[in-house]
Amino acid sequence: MASGVSNKLTGQVGEHLVSAVLGTLGYYASPYSGNVPGFDVTAVHSESLKSFPVQVKASTKGALVQSSIDKWCDHSIGEDNYQTMGPLKPLKHPNLVWVLVRLGDSGISGARFFICTERDIQEKIVARYSAFMERHDYRRPGGGASPQAILNIKDVAEFENNWSVLPDYQADVGLA
């Protein structure tokens, strides 16, 4: 299991790497290194000066996103650990930009980026969790009652290098 220090360093590397890539795409970007709830980086388009927050999730292996399912939809665990899934919860910031970063074994040179909105994350994580629970008759294998939900690379593959989600993104601007 990864240590707390290792996780913090991975997050810090991810935030700074996203800030650097945003710079190559024409945005001024600054990370907050975990000091602001709800987002990790502020980006400002260099021409329009339109600013927006960015949520960054970085990992070196395993899941790109780990969250409790009840953050995303109505959910309950009843008798015999039977789980019930309800409607999606309203999001405060459905268009919040999320950048998921998979750092490579060789460090930042092999990093992969998956860019989408918070609404996309909600839809993907609820769909994955619902499919998993349906396969197991809405009970966790082994009798557990965990509401833990995840997203892996295959769940968000369609968002790889999807920088067009960014406000004022210019398609002819690219990584050098």
Commentary on this structure:
It comes from Marinobacter nauticus (Marinobacter hydrocarbonoclasticus). This is DUF4365 domain-containing protein. The protein has 176 residues and is of the alpha+beta class. The N and C termini lie far apart (36 Å). It has three helices and nine strands, in the order αββββββββαβα. It is globular. The strands form three sheets. It has a five-stranded mixed sheet with strand order 1-2-3-7-8. Strands 4-9 form a two-stranded antiparallel sheet. Strand 2 and strand 3 form a beta hairpin. It has one domain (1-165): 3-Layer(aba) Sandwich (Trna Endonuclease, Chain: A, domain 1), CATH 3.40.1350.
N/C terminus separation: 36 Å
> What number of structural domains do the residues give?
1
The CATH architecture classification is 3-Layer(aba) Sandwich
Overall pLDDT: 90
> Which CATH first-tier class would you pick?
Alpha Beta
Placed side by side, the strands forming the largest sheet appear as 1-2-3-7-8
Write the H/E string, N to C: HEEEEEEEEHEH
Organism: Marinobacter nauticus (Marinobacter hydrocarbonoclasticus)
Protein name: DUF4365 domain-containing protein
List the helices and strands and how they pair.
Blueprint lengths: L3 H21 L2 E5 L9 E5 L5 E9 L5 E4 L4 E5 L5 E6 L8 E8 L2 E11 H18 L12 E4 L1 H4 L20
Parallel strand pairs: 3-7
Antiparallel strand pairs: 1-2, 2-3, 4-9, 5-6, 7-8
Keywords:
176 residues; Trna Endonuclease, Chain: A, domain 1; two-stranded antiparallel sheet; 3 helices; 24% helix; 32% strand
